[in-house]
Amino acid sequence: MKRTARRVWTVVVRTLRAVPRAAWVCAAIAIINAFCWALILPPFQVPDEPSHFAYVKQLAETGTLPTSHEKEFAREENLVLDELRESPFMPPTGTISSRAEHQRFEAALGEAAEEAREGSPAAGVATSQPPFYYALEAIPYLVGYDGNLLTRLELMRLFSALFAGITAMFVFLFVREALPATRIAPTAAGLSIAFAPLLGFMSGSVNPDSLLFAMSALLFWSLAFTFRRGLNYQRAVLIGVITALGLLTKLNFAGMLPGAIVGLAVLATRAPYSLRRPAYRPFAIGAGIAVVPAVIYVFINLVTNKPTLGAVTTATRLVHGSLFPAIEATWRLFLPHLPGMKAYAGGSVFATREIWFNGFVGQYGWVETAFPAWVYTIALWIGIALVVGCVWTLVTLRRTVLRRAAELAVYAVVAIGLVLLIGFAAFFGGGHEQSYTQARYLLPLLALFAAGLALAARAGGKRWEAVLGTSIVLALFADDIFSQLLVIARFYG
Amino acid sequence: MNSRTKAAITLAAGLLVIAAALLAVLLQAPRKVTGSNEIATVGELVSFRPQMTLCQGDELLPASTEAVRLSVAAYIGPAISITVSHGGQTLAVGSRGRGWVSSSLTLALRPALKAPSEVTFCLRRDHTRLVAGVLGNATSVARAATVNATPLAGRMRVEYLAAGDKSWLSLAHHVARRMGLGHDSPSGGWIVVPLAVLMLSALALAGWLIVRTE
Prior knowledge:
The complex is a heterodimer.
Chain A: H1 2-18, H2 21-40, H3 49-62, H4 75-83, H5 99-114, H6 132-143, H7 149-178, H8 184-195, H9 197-203, H10 209-229, H11 233-249, H12 257-269, H13 273-303, H14 311-318, H15 324-334, H16 351-362, E1 363-364, E2 369-370, H17 373-396, H18 398-403, H19 405-429, H20 446-457, H21 461-492
Antiparallel strand pairs in A: 1-2
Helix pairs in contact in A: 2-7, 2-8, 2-9, 3-6, 4-5, 6-7, 7-8, 7-10, 7-20, 8-20, 8-21, 10-11, 10-12, 11-13, 12-13, 12-19, 15-19, 17-20, 20-21
Chain B: H1 3-26, E1 32-36, E2 43-48, E3 53-61, E4 65-70, E5 72-73, E6 80-86, E7 89-96, E8 105-108, E9 117-125, E10 132-138, E11 146-147, E12 150-151, E13 154-156, E14 158-162, H2 172-179, H3 192-213
């Protein structure tokens, strides 16, 4: 037993030592950035934070999962929501504005903290989510157990910020594996993601998205790593475990599951013919591990007489005829509509720009805190330049692209799976076309986005790569700083 | 010129541009709230649809009001225009194009009001399918807002805004003090100091890494 533990420890230390210093720096910057967001954001002014907090409270205080989708939270949580007058309807003024009000509020919180802690069986929209993130968040919750709710919330946010570091680190490592010809690419990509304001905003709050982004970055890195070195048992298990943990983090990861399985299958078929048969065994092991949470989920649903595939079953019951309307709705949710296709919201919204692009540039709070329109216009021109640069580099490197077509196809399957999941969820769950879709839903694809930035930096050739790479990092840094000021002005101005 | 020098020059130039933009923002004076109709935003009064004209009377606007902030919320908002009138005479108009994102809608008024006036607002919107909700609280029928002359269940919240006379920079102390409230922040308003130190260290680390890598 002791020997096994020592071996594991040795492997862990060796693995950590193998991580380049630049990746650690990117991770540190992402954590610092998310820390800052955690300190700036008022309590519960992030999408669904009250629900996610309630889930952790229930898990930490009772050891059981929440059971109700209602938003009837525990008294101390309602006290904070009431006292800070925070609701999606809040105009930009109205929260606590004097020291006396703050002291009264703290006294009330202190009294509430003295009461028996009986969890929160109702956790709103978080109730249907798997427990991995919440179980991890129970650690800072219990560390701050003697403090009031605000102390626990802040500790949980700071803990969540650590996941931003993991995301930035593995985005760096993914780009290093995927674009090995240049030293600048991973640094520019890692730093850009570390300063991405939407990552900081989400990771600086209590929300399983922070861990979802980290698990997604890990998945992309593990696939790229294996594509460069070949599939063996350890790498198959690694991909399987990452996928399983991703599924246990947030339901959205289910959209990436097909990509992970296809990735393992493609890796197995790439083995030399003589080794192909043995390569199917690691595939089976990796895929088996990956689907374990899904199998357990189905089993629990069957035992408890719930729909076999949970929300998926409910959604499929809503499908009348074919899936075509859902696919069409997904297309126009992400891309400009094609001839003969209905436009999103009757043509009054260009979703590609107004939901996804503008949302990534910066929409905060409950997606109601936004920059003036001209900021998004400037950002759009920069975005177009980056897309052109990225496409140009891909055309220049077309031979390499063709040689690595299978690998790129796997990344595309991962991305398309997520996009379909988001689109179908909006189509079946939204009730009307303008459901509450947010840009953060695409952040699990940060690794691909970062690779795109790195490719754009290479568009000017070796001569300009340093200049373009640095400019991209500075653009994201500027976006981050002004986003923080925007939120400060919105809530404290 | 080697890559390292190029990166260092780009970094320095970029940071100068960002610092200049930051200063320009901080020297701007934000609009100030001079009053409101004291209606709470408790829930949705009506979903504001095309063909609707929503009017709300008995609004006492202070002198120098140059904008109003209405409790109208949207995920992606339609174009909305406002007419401010008194005794049938239009005093000011304003509008906002489609695509706004907020839980409140600020409309600049042209011209700004010179004297305090008891006015009626009338809102109209475009014909798109974008959804907007008018938020407010219940009142008596006599005081309620109307849609196409039919009374609603209550009134929307309205805040009156005038041109600010203090820049963000001169308001920094006030903003910092408020940042320490409603948070778990033992340091109170001093919270901005660690924030600034953290972001500067992140920037220094990034700068070091960029120059070192190139």
